[in-house]
């Protein structure tokens, strides 16, 4: 665990340094402002450009943006660039579309057009944007009309701008540096997830890893960082950003449903959270594909379908916190900024208001916060699970010991020896000695069960004295004990144990009128490793021998030697005690 803590501290230090380095640099030469559309409109596919020349056809209020009509229109007025360099590029957010056509409206009503398909756009490293060259604008140009066929995104319309130089559009160097650093910060949690999963095979670690990978994909595509490495088609850029985001939101719900402590979520809430995650991956993920067949509703469908995830996450976290979940508090702190920025992005995506693309940076900063806090939460949960598992293992070992040990003497019980008997035979324990205390009932009757229990403990201590690698002591129940022996002179060692019992009882239990002796039935196997008899068969033979010893006067040992697969039993012999 010390290595995990050290790695976590190192990662936190790197993350804080990254956030510090990502602070905006001092202002340099200000960029010239990009030119935004003054008016917009929506129409069917048959609306002509001539019909759009009149100002009455346009909405110039800054509201009512539509991406569900077959055609969207943008109007840029020449007054916006009259005293500056003429625009040369059209730049907007990467989103699916079929075609973009530019019409330069010159004095006298002359229209000059230029047409581009979706594949003609060129993404560049200034955000999730692409550019198209404009028709030549002159001092005679009064307006630029832009027709977009099958637009799939309202931000594609609200964030469209005209620029003279490409450095006037998109993100600043400081903003791109921040995105790169956030992307680098996401690598370490992924490494932690791999390390944690190797130690604890918990599903929530896999779900968090999926969430981190999705966040990395989102930063790459929605932040436009990928365009600094490779130039991808506009359609790929347009699809990947929302697809990564819906996958990340879905993985976050799956993570939450499995991460919190047991009992933090009710069964119904846990199921709701899990299936909401599946919904968020599947349904908004489908709308993220931006198929032309779904153009009329996929933009609104994406945001409306992903909205329940924020509601379910909030409800689940509140539910868990009210139930006293420690992990839910960590997750709540980590996800609160993300939920807020996601809702802002959702509202902006639905066209409720138009805002600059720089607002997306809030989401990336919130991602950096999430990375730090959720990693702390996983480390905290990791430690808690380790403690819980260690306690469970300790309890399991205690229960196992209780179930396999005699509670009075501490010796193995019958259940334990029966389970291990075949293995012990294979290990060469070739002598089975059954011990029974003589006239033990009289001790209980005369002195009480407390003294009788003390005599049993003393007997156990006597046969335990021989406890080494070559002997195993067991209490079967009542005053019956078994000793398994291997090695040399096992019969003599068994007799020595039997004679030690009266001496140990007399030493540990004073006040008894007569010595407490023991009778023993012993079976010596010729080839223990090849014997196929069961414990019950050995017990039955040894029990018969032990009763022969008792019938011969007690305080003695009766034994027989068995040969594997021999039909008649060997002659039984009784050995009297030499000393009581």
Automatic annotation (TrEMBL):
Its EC number is 2.7.7.65
Q: Which residue positions does the secretion signal occupy?
A: 1-27
Instruction: Determine if Transferase is one of this entry's keywords.
Output: yes
Q: What is this protein called?
A: diguanylate cyclase
- Originating species: Erythrobacter fulvus
- Looking at the UniProt entry, the stretches that span the membrane are 176-200, 212-236, 242-260, 272-289, 301-322, 334-355, 361-379
Chain ranges of the GGDEF domain: 428-562
Source organism, top-level taxon:
Bacteria
Q: Which InterPro entries match?
A: 7TMR_DISM_rcpt_extracell_dom1, Diguanylate_Cyclase, GGDEF_dom, Nucleotide_cyclase, Rev_trsase/Diguanyl_cyclase
The UniProt entry, under Pfam families, shows:
7TMR-DISM_7TM, GGDEF
**Catalytic activity reported:** 2 GTP = 3',3'-c-di-GMP + 2 diphosphate
Q: Which SUPFAM superfamilies match?
A: Nucleotide cyclase (SSF55073)
Q: Which keywords annotate this record?
A: Membrane, Nucleotidyltransferase, Signal, Transferase, Transmembrane, Transmembrane helix
Record-level Gene Ontology MF annotations: diguanylate cyclase activity
Q: Does the keyword Secreted apply?
A: no
Q: Which NCBIfam families match?
A: GGDEF (TIGR00254)
């Amino acid at each position: 665990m010390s290595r995990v803590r050290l790695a976590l501290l190192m990662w936190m230090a790197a993350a804080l340094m990254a956030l510090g380095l990502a602070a905006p640099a001092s202002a340099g030469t200000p960029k010239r402002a990009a030119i935004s559309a003054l008016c917009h409109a929506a129409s069917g596919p048959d609306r002509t450009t001539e019909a759009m020349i009149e100002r009455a056809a346009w909405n110039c209020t800054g509201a009512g943006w539509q991406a569900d009509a077959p055609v969207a229109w943008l109007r840029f007025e020449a007054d916006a660039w009259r005293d500056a360099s003429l625009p040369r590029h059209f730049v907007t957010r990467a989103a699916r579309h079929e075609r973009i056509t530019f019409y330069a409206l010159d004095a006298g009503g002359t229209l000059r057009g230029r047409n581009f398909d979706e594949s003609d756009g060129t993404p560049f490293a200034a955000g999730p944007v692409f550019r198209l060259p404009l028709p030549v604008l002159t001092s005679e140009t009064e307006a630029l009309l832009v027709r977009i066929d099958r637009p799939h995104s309202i931000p594609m319309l609200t964030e469209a701008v005209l620029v003279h130089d490409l450095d006037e559009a998109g993100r600043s160097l400081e903003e791109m540096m921040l995105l790169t650093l956030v992307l680098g910060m996401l690598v370490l949690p992924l490494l932690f997830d791999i390390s944690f999963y190797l130690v604890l095979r918990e599903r929530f670690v896999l779900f968090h890893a999926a969430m981190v990978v999705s966040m990395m994909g989102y930063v790459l595509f929605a932040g436009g960082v990928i365009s600094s490495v490779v130039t991808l088609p506009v359609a790929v850029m347009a699809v990947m950003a929302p697809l990564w985001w819906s996958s990340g939101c879905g993985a976050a719900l799956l993570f939450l449903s499995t991460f919190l402590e047991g009992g933090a979520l009710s069964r119904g809430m846990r199921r709701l959270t899990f299936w909401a995650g599946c919904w968020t991956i599947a349904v908004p993920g489908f709308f993220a594909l931006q198929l032309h067949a779904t153009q009329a509703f996929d933009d609104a469908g994406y945001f409306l379908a992903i909205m329940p995830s924020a509601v379910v996450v909030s409800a689940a976290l509140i539910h868990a916190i009210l139930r006293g979940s420690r992990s839910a508090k960590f997750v709540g702190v980590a996800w609160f900024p993300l939920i807020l920025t996601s809702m802002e992005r959702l509202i902006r995506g639905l066209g409720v208001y138009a805002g600059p693309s720089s607002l997306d940076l809030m989401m990336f900063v919130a991602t950096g916060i999430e990375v730090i806090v959720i990693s702390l939460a996983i480390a905290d949960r990791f430690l808690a699970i380790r403690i819980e598992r260690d306690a469970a293992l300790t309890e399991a070992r205690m229960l196992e010991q209780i179930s396999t040990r005699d509670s009075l003497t501490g010796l193995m019980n019958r259940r334990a020896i029966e389970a291990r008997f075949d293995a012990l035979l294979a290990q060469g324990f070739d002598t089975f000695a059954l011990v029974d205390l003589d006239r033990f009932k009289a001790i209980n009757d005369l002195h009480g069960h407390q003294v009788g229990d003390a005599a049993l403990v003393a007997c156990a201590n006597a046969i335990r004295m021989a406890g080494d690698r070559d002997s195993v002591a067991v209490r079967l129940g009542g005053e019956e004990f078994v000793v398994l022996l291997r090695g040399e002179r096992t019969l003599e060692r068994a007799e020595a144990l039997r004679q030690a019992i009266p001496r140990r009882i007399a030493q540990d239990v004073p006040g008894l009128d007569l010595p407490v002796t023991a009778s023993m039935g012993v079976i010596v196997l010729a080839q223990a490793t090849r014997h196929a008899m069961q414990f019950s068969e050995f017990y039955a033979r040894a029990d018969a021998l032990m009763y022969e010893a008792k019938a011969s006067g007690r305080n003695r040992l009766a034994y027989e030697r068995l040969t594997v697969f021999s039909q008649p039993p060997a002659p039984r012999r009784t050995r009297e005690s030499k000393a009581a």
